[in-house]
Amino acid sequence: MERWKGRVALVTGASVGIGAAVARALVQQGMRVVGCARNVDKIELAAECQSAGYSGTLIPYKCDLSNEEEILSMFSAIKTLHKGVDVCINNAGLAHNEPLLSGRTEGWRNMIDVNVLALSICTREAYKSMKERNVDDGHIININSMGGHRVVPSADEHFYCATKYAVTALTEGIRQELREANTHIRATCISPGIVETEFAFRHHNSDPEKAASVYESMKCLKAEDIASAVTFVLSAPPHIQIGDVQMRPVEQVS
């Protein structure tokens, strides 16, 4: 990770869970991390990282990823204040309980806007930033899900899984286009199984007991486990392309 010290990483969805853990880990490694979230007040890591004496810095940034104008404004601000993005961690994602046969279009659209379109826009803008500055060793990391590799047998999850299958396809498409562009910028997908965060409680917000049962059924992954996977991927030698890291609890069946 030595080569990343002082360089700029964007982490989306950095206020809680996996995003917060990834942001903390990169600051520990000496990176300048722009952590974006809809509610910037929830990004409490900046003071924590400073008091812990980490060698990097965390810069909170308010951004609604379902709004393209806000994303473009964020990249413009990063260019002005920090020159640009060297690492883009597309972590933000959400799920709504909207089955295919009875779900609301509004919920489907929100999942597409955040899980698919925002990821694609951030990737495009990060690549532009790298190319403008002749950065040839940048990295785009998409936090995916095991739901992007198999369909969970639950109507609550079907549309969410569809968006994550899209992330799997998009990551491979990005890798292919980067090769066609003759660049050494890399693209990686990290696909965790069940991670103990606030995710299930948001997904099953009307049934907290059901949400709690998801995490009580087994020893789940922790957000820090995903952060470790991110630093592992970033620390790989520049000639190694890590395509997809799939990780799940030992006790998880599928």
List its salient traits:
alpha/beta; 7-stranded parallel beta sheet; 7 strands; 15% strand; NAD(P)-bd_dom_sf; EC 1.1.1.62
Overall description:
The chain is of the alpha/beta class and about 250 residues long. The protein has eight helices and seven strands. It has helices spanning about 15-30, 45-50, 70-80, 105-130, 160-180, 200-205, 210-215, 225-235; strands at about 10, 30-35, 55-60, 85-90, 140-145, 185-190, 245. It has a seven-stranded parallel sheet, with helices on both faces. α4 links the parallel β4 (about 85-90) and β5. α1 (about 15-30) packs across α8 and α4 (about 105-130) runs parallel beside α5. The longest helix is centred in the middle third of the chain and has 28 residues, at about 105-130. Keywords: Oxidoreductase. Pathway: Steroid biosynthesis; estrogen biosynthesis. This is Dehydrogenase/reductase SDR family member 11.
Outline of the structure:
The protein has 254 residues and is an alpha/beta fold. It has helices spanning 17-28, 45-51, 68-82, 105-132, 158-180, 199-203, 208-216, 223-235, and strands spanning 8-12, 32-37, 57-62, 87-90, 139-143, 186-192, 244-247.
Report the end-to-end length measured between terminal Cα atoms: 33 Å
Largest sheet: 7 strands, parallel
Shape estimate? globular
Pairing-aware structural class of the strands and helices? Answer: alpha/beta
DSSP helix count?
8
Query: Average pLDDT value?
Result: 93
Q: Identify the strand order in the major beta sheet.
A: 3-2-1-4-5-6-7
List the helices and strands and how they pair.
Elements: E1 8-12, H1 17-28, E2 32-37, H2 45-51, E3 57-62, H3 68-82, E4 87-90, H4 105-132, E5 139-143, H5 158-180, E6 186-192, H6 199-203, H7 208-216, H8 223-235, E7 244-247
Parallel strand pairs: 1-2, 1-4, 2-3, 4-5, 5-6, 6-7
